[in-house]
Write a structure and sequence with these properties.
Elements lengths: L1 E4 L3 E4 L6 E8 L14 E8 L1 E12 L2 E14 L2 E5 L3 H4 L2 H6 L10 E2 L1 H6 L2 H17 L3 E4 L4 E3 L3 E8 L7 E10 L2 E14 L2 H11 L3
Parallel strand pairs: 2-13, 7-9
Antiparallel strand pairs: 1-3, 3-11, 4-7, 4-12, 5-6, 6-8, 10-11, 12-13
Length: 211
Amino acid sequence: VEADVSSRNIAITSAFTGTEVVVFGSVVNSRQPSAEAGYYDVIVVLEGMATPLLARKKSNVGGLWVNTDSFAFESAPSYYAIASTRPIEEIAEPALLARHAIGHDYARLSPAAQSAMTATIPELKEYKSAVLRLKQKEGLYIKRDYAVIFIGKSLFRASIALPANVPVGPLTARVYLLREGELLSTFQSRVRLERSGIELWIYRAAMNHPF
C-alpha cells in the first residue's frame, strides 16, 4: 500500500478551531474488481505523542465526592483516531490488533511501575477504561467505522477530525492493508502540529520568562 496525508504541517494559532486530516492512498497491483467489492480492508490510525497521565478516582466520603485514589500511566497517546472500512473486530483477530496497537482497547497505555505494583488487574482495567471513556468524551479518542472509502479499484481516502483541543505535537499516521484478516502491507507518515503567530510567542514567553 502507498499512502500520504493532505497536510504534513498544521499551524496552531489563536484562531485554531480544529481541522481535518485526509489520509489517501492506493493499493499497488490491486486485485479488487470494483470499489464496492470489499476485497481489501484498510485501517487508518492517527496517533499523537505519548505523554504521562494520572487518573484519579472519586468516592463519596461523608456526602462529598473527593479524590480517594489515583493511578499513574507512564505514557498514553495524547490523541488517537481510527478509521476503517468496517468495524475492526470484523477485520482482524484480537491478537493482530493488539500486536500493532490498533483500536482504543489496544492503544499503548503503559502503567507506571509503582502503580502497576500496587494495583490489581481488575483495578488496572478499570482505570484504563476510565481513561478511554474520558478521552472519548473530550473528542481526543475517535473511532469511525466505514470511514475509509475506496474510490475505484485501488484508490482510498479517509477524513479524520482534529478538534480544537488537540495537544500540540507530532502525530503519526499509520495505514494497514488487510485481506481476510491477514496483514498485507503497512505505511507510516508524520504530521506536525506546531504553534504559530501569537500562540508561539506566548508559549515561548511562558517557558523562557515565566515571571
